[in-house]
Structures are given as C-alpha cells and as structure tokens.
Amino acid sequence: MKEQGYKRIDPNAVRENLIKLIASDWMLVSAGDKEKFNTMTANWGGAGYLWNKPVVFVFVRPERYTYEFTERNDQFTLSFFDEKYREALNICGTKSGRDCNKIAEASLSPFFTDLGNVTFKEARLVMECRKLYAEMMSEDAFIDKAVFNTHYARKGGLHKMYIAEIINVWVN
Hints:
Structural class: alpha+beta
C-alpha cells in the first residue's frame, strides 16, 4: 500500500476518536477480491481489545449485497474518509451493488492491499481486518426490548455481528 501513499501504523497509534469516526463520519465495509467485491456504508460498530488482540466489531444485515462477500471472505476492510466524500458514502449506503455500479457512481477508486483486500484511494484511514467470530443477532437476546422495537421490529431483519482482528492499519 506504500505505492498508494499509505503508511502502516500500529492499531494502538490511531489517535482519532473511533466513536466519532464510526457514528458520525461513517465508514465503508468492503469485502471480496479482484474478481468481484462490494462495499456498503455503515455507522454501527466499534473497536477495542478482545482475546489479546485489537479488534473491531461491525454489523451487516443479510439482505445487504455486501453480506455475501463478508460471508465468503475471511477478511474485510473498514475505510474512513474526509467529509468531502460524504456524498460518495451516501451513494454507497443507499444503492445496491446488485443493481448498479455504485463505486463508479460514487467516483471512488478501488485498489487492493498486499493481502488482496479492497479499499479506496480516497480513504484517509483503512483498517484491514480478519474475522474471528460471527453470529446472527437474536430477538431473544435483547435485554432492553426498546432497542429491538426501535431498530428492528418494523425495519427489516436482524444484523449479523462480526468481531475481527485488526491486522493492519493504513493512513494516508
């Protein structure tokens, strides 16, 4: 990724507020390979330390096209952008790669890491992640039923949660 102008840093060296990055700035969750990949905008997730590893956790609904790619691949990327790319993130969050070339519509430039994972030249921060654990959320597991009622009862299926080790962090 150095040829793309990125510098590799330790996950502990990320100084940005990850809650703001995910919740407010949004991210692209991308999976696949050079033959076929997809990406989607997300703002639910987090990062921390689990099983003696730096990790992220992200949520993908099975109805999303990206779900197929996240399921088939052991790795995925989380890509973060400057505010000037907000419209590109809107496109990637509202259009399906099943129906159109949303990457082209968003004017993003995909490229692949040394490990073969897709990200975008426009991203300023990329987390390359390896899946460790995945599980479908369950209505019965919600202790606070108001959360389920607010976010799921009338709004589509439950998410699958992925916990993944952060194996590389790249900054541009």
